[in-house]
Design goal:
The protein has about 375 residues and is mainly α. It is built from 14 helices and four strands. The strands form two sheets. The protein has a two-stranded antiparallel sheet. A two-stranded antiparallel sheet has the order 2-3.
Length: about 375
């Protein structure tokens, strides 16, 4: 056996080596945290801050504008079909305009394409998985064909790699025509759902008329400011994260940015599905997709042509596929069942997985 004194010396040296190794490990860990993890965390915080600012900005803008319109004598039905419909697309609009203005057109396009894929695949999929959703025939006969035509027209415009200002004007004219058609149809056919949604959201016509004008104008201004900074922060976090992780900007926009701007729709749809309000969910999803293509891309391209280099045809085919998939899913019994919701979810996560292996891991392996 080792003598007592020599044993203690050996044990002391062993403890010193362990202490030294621990210090080296902690130092290296801190260095790694400082060089990589903390910057990524900061980028994610910018994304979250941008998402929060976009959410409240849209809420304030829509709330102030809707109540102000009612206060000046416009009916809640007209406000719901115009002000609210356009206002709910404000986050995507501000984000896409900001990306394109700062020479990030792939992120601008990816935001819209990814949002539509996310709306149909994830939002509808999760909602149907929670509760089977029934569909009104008007959605099948009116809104789904409009969405399909808008999707095909947008993909055809982008097939040459650019959406020009003239094409943007055509898309925006189409959304104006669609809105006018909705208004004309609303006068012929009673549409209590829009009015009830307005009353639930904004407290009814009488409450809107009693709101002070200066307060409503302040809400509108605050909403615009929130949307502006929210879009800027979302762009700052998204672009920095893409560069830091070596992920193509288009992939970040198609997935993370698109998911972020769809989070409010997802939360609203989950609540509505628990209340068995399937019509509201499907109507909101289809309406959001239509406005993304016609209004968001239309206005963005009118300001500055959108030139694509990172968006591939497969992304457009996936968006078309999800849109076409709505027709048999909605037509079959005018409902979306749980297993159909599971198919939509599987398609969405399958597409995200494809993006990773094809453009992130595949590109890294090729490099």
């Amino acid at each position: 056996m080792m003598p007592g004194r020599a044993g203690r010396q050996y044990a002391n040296k062993a403890r010193q080596r362990k202490s030294k190794l621990r210090k080296i490990f902690l130092w290296q860990s801190g260095r790694l945290l400082q060089q990589w993890a903390m910057p990524v965390l900061i980028d994610l915080l910018w994304l979250v801050a941008g998402l929060v600012a976009l959410y409240f900005g849209a809420e304030w803008l829509v709330g102030g504008a809707a109540k102000l319109a009612v206060r000046f004598g416009i009916s809640p039905l007209v406000v719901g079909l115009t002000v609210v419909a356009f206002g709910t697309s404000a986050p995507e609009l501000f984000v896409s305009i900001g990306f394109n203005a700062n020479n990030l057109p792939d992120m601008s396009l990816g935001n819209v394409i990814g949002s539509n894929i996310c709306n149909i695949g994830l939002v509808l999929g999760v909602s149907a998985f929670i509760c089977m959703m029934r569909v009104k025939s008007e959605l099948l006969l009116r809104d789904v064909p409009v969405l399909l035509i808008a999707t095909l027209a947008f993909c055809w415009m982008l097939s040459n790699g650019v959406v020009s200002q003239a094409e943007g004007a055509i898309l925006f004219a189409a959304v104006l025509g669609y809105t006018v058609y909705q208004l004309v149809l609303a006068k012929k056919v009673k549409n209590p759902e829009v009015v009830s949604e307005f009353e639930e959201e904004f407290g009814g016509e009488d409450a809107a008329k009693q709101s002070p004008v200066l307060l409503l104008v302040g809400l509108i201004i605050a909403g615009l400011v929130g949307l502006y900074f929210g879009a800027d922060w979302l762009e700052r976090g998204g672009v920095s994260l893409a560069k830091r992780l070596g992920v193509p900007e288009a992939v970040i926009a198609l997935t993370l940015i698109a998911f972020s701007t769809s989070v409010p729709e997802l939360a609203t749809s989950v609540v509505a599905s628990l209340k068995r309000e399937g019509d509201i969910i499907i109507g909101n999803v289809i309406g959001s997709c239509i406005f993304n293509l016609l209004c968001v891309i239309g206005v963005t391209a009118m300001i500055k042509p959108v030139v694509s280099s990172g968006i591939e045809m497969v992304d457009l085919y996936v968006m078309i596929g999800f849109t076409v998939l709505l027709i048999p899913v909605l037509w079959k019994g005018s409902r979306i069942t749980r297993w159909e919701g599971a198919v939509l979810l599987a398609g969405y996560f399958g597409y995200c997985g494809f993006l990773y292996f094809d453009r992130v891991a595949g590109a890294g392996g090729a490099a």
